[in-house]
Amino acid sequence: MLAPYASDPSASRGRRYPEAPAPTRNEYQRDRDRIVHSTAFRRLVYKTQVFLNHEGDLFRTRLTHSLEVAQLARSIARSLGLHEDLVEAIALAHDLGHTPFGHAGQDALHQCMREYGGFEHNLQSLRVVDELEERYPAFNGLNLTFETREGILKHCSRADAQRLGDVGRRFLERAQPSLEAQLCNLADEIAYNAHDVDDGVRSGLLTMEQLEAVPIFVRYRDDALREHPGLGGRRLLFETIRRMLSGQVYDVIDATRAALAEHQPGSADAARRCPPLVRFSHPMAAELQVLKRFLRTHLYRHPQVVETTGRGQRVVRELFAAYRDDPSQMPPDYAAAEDLPRAIADYIAGMTDRFAIREHERLTGLRLF
C-alpha cells in the first residue's frame, strides 16, 4: 500500500520519448529492468569501491554496493509506504557513471577535463542513462522516467541545472527530490558506512582495536557480546556490523515518520516542497559523523590505499593524454566525436579497473599493477 506522499507510477511525469505502457509492469519496474540489463550495470562488477578489483575477490565492488543499497532502500521504503520499485531503480543506477579506481579515478578525470567542463560521476550516471547506452532503435540511452532520472541526479551546479532542463529544475527552485530519492541517498550512506568497516578489517588495514575509537561500533559490539558472551573474530565483526545496519535502518524509519507527522505532506509534490524528510535522528547523525571521520583518516587515507589509488590516477591521466594525442586508439564512434575531450571522458569513465589497466599497458608499455 502506497502512502499519499509516495511516488505513483501512474502519475509519473513521463519519459523523454513517449512510449506505450507495458502490459504487466509499472513504469518504475520497467526502469529497474532496463538498468539491470544495461551494459553500464554489468561493468560495475569490476569497478572499485574502496579496494581495487585485483586486490581480492571478497571486497565490495560498485555492483555489490549497489545491490546492498537497493536492499536497504527497499526495506525502509516498505515500512514508510514509499514505492519500492522506484527506490530500487534509483539505487541500482546511482553509480553507473563512476570511473575505474573509485573517487580517485574521478578526481583524475576531472583534472583532465578541467578546461572542457569538468567531470563528475553523478552527472555521468545521468549521461549514461540519457545518452550513452545504445540498446534501442528509436533513441539514445534507456529513456527512463523523470522520477528515476531525478533520483540519479543527487546534486549539480546551477549552470548544469539550467542545461539539464526538467530534471535540474529543483536545484534552481531549491525544492527537494522525491522521498524515494531522498531515501536512496541515505541508504547509500548506510551501506558504505557499515561495509567499509568490514572491508577495512578484512584487508588488515583496520583492526578491532582501532575501532574502539568509534562509539557507534563499540555500542553495537558490546550489545553483541552481552547477548553472545565469548563471541570473537569474524563472527563478532559480522554481528556488530549487522546490528549497526539494523540500528541505522530503524533510526531512519523512526526519524522520518516523525518528520512526516510534523509536516504532513498530502502528496508526492507536497513532500518536494518540504525540507528533507527522510533523515537520521540527530544522535545517530552525530555518531555517523564520527565513524566517517574515522574511516577517512584510517582507511581512505591509509598509505596503502593512497599508493594504490595513486597508481590508478596515473592510469587515468595517461590514458586521457594518449587518446587526446591519438584518437584512433579508441573505438571509431568515440574517435570521430565532435566533442573529443568529452568522448574521451565517456570512454575512460566506462572502463572497468582491469580493462583500464590493460589498456594503459598496451598504450604505454608500463605495468603499474
From TrEMBL:
Identification of the protein by name: Deoxyguanosinetriphosphate triphosphohydrolase-like protein
Keywords: Hydrolase
InterPro entries per the UniProt record, alphabetical: dGTPase, dGTPase-like, dNTPase_2, HD/PDEase_dom, HD_domain, HDIG_dom, PHydrolase_assoc_dom
Family: Belongs to the dGTPase family. Type 2 subfamily.
Transmembrane domains' residue ranges: none
Residues annotated as domain HD: 62-193
Pfam families tied to this protein: HD, HD_assoc
Domain of life: Bacteria
Alphabetized PANTHER family for the sequence: DEOXYGUANOSINETRIPHOSPHATE TRIPHOSPHOHYDROLASE-LIKE PROTEIN, DEOXYNUCLEOSIDE TRIPHOSPHATE TRIPHOSPHOHYDROLASE
Region (Disordered): 1-31
Matches recorded under CDD domains: HDc
SUPFAM superfamilies to which the protein is assigned, alphabetical: HD-domain/PDEase-like
